[in-house]
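User: quick one, sequence for these tokens?
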């Protein structure tokens, strides 16, 4: 039996991540830290997009389930509270697939082919065959993920606004064809811009699992310090006596995000005068990262895998109730109410 949906007076937000492994500091600063703040102000739905993982990893699915456990543990470690937010698994809510199918019927092919990440990911993942229906159509599934919960806002960084705009276009097209008693069923969600500092990885490029340059939220202190020791620095500092510029150094970028103003002042003064070496500067950066990671890892240790699975199960039940509410309206607007009977 479907659980009743308890109305909320708060605005609703929704977002999610693919389960590609343990999350790193880039994920935390780019999304999770903001989600934690939002859950005290908004009605929040945060999910793990395991079906989306299939769009690129369809040929090898053995890691999706264990990665899902790692991601929900990292969600909880970051401070997401199942009493404040609905934390759920995409594939546990079959309405995602149903709405994606229905939205796909009216989404123009050209809209999907012009998505910036479509060709970009094909180039970056040249070792995989991404000439598939699932990969081309992933923006429709993403739109279904969002619109299914009729959210007011989707929290994203500035570089992700295009994805939400396509979702708005898909909703607009659906509403042109289908109304329920004269009203639109799928409101167009707005972008909720959130701070999203781009963290450099240990090789100086953007921190990314695909580059193998990450500092994980679950990395213990010795691992963090070892990774920082190998991090690239300002190329102008070849010798200890060479002067550098923290604005041209990936370690300097970490200091700007995590270090105190006092430490940052020492970094600028010491680097530009060659008064400190890179090893000392990296040590200060490691000190700052460890202070951030300690409470995160403390929260992670409070949950077992079994508890994490139970939280996902409970959140998925709550998400299904909200999703079915939307789908009953979608089916009615499309004059397909018998589809609901077929599922009973």
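Assistant:
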């Amino acid at each position: 039996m479907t659980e009743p949906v308890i109305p909320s007076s708060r605005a609703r937000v929704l977002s999610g991540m693919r389960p590609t492994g343990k999350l790193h500091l880039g994920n935390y600063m780019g999304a999770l830290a903001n989600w934690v703040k939002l859950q005290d102000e908004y009605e929040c739905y945060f999910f793990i997009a395991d079906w989306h993982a299939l769009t690129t990893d369809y040929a090898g699915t053995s890691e999706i389930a264990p990665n899902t456990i790692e991601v929900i543990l990292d969600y909880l470690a970051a401070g997401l509270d199942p009493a404040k937010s609905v934390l759920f698994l995409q594939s546990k809510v079959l309405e995602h697939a149903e709405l994606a199918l229905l939205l796909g019927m009216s989404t123009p092919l050209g809209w999907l082919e012009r998505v910036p990440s479509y060709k970009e990911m094909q180039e970056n993942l040249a070792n995989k065959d991404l000439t598939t229906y699932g990969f081309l159509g992933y923006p429709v599934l993403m739109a279904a993920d969002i619109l299914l919960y009729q959210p007011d806002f989707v929290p994203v960084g500035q570089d992700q606004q295009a994805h939400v705009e396509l979702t708005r276009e898909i909703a607009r097209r659906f509403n042109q064809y289908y109304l329920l008693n004269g009203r639109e069923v799928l409101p167009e969600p707005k972008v909720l811009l959130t701070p999203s500092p781009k963290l450099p990885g240990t090789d100086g490029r953007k921190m990314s699992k695909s580059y193998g340059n990450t500092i994980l939220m679950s990395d213990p202190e010795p691992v963090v310090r070892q990774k920082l020791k190998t991090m690239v620095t300002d190329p102008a500092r070849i010798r200890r006596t060479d002067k550098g510029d923290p604005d041209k150094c990936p370690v300097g970028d970490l200091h700007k995000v995590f270090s105190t103003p006092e430490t940052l002042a020492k970094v600028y003064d010491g680097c530009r005068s060659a008064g400190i070496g890179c090893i000392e500067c990296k040590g200060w950066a490691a000190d700052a990262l460890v202070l951030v990671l300690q409470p995160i890892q403390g929260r992670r240790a409070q949950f077992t895998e079994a508890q994490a699975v139970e939280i996902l199960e409970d959140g998925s039940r709550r998400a299904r109730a909200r999703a079915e509410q939307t789908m009953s309206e979608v089916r009615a607007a499309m004059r397909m109410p018998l589809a609901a009977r077929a599922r009973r």
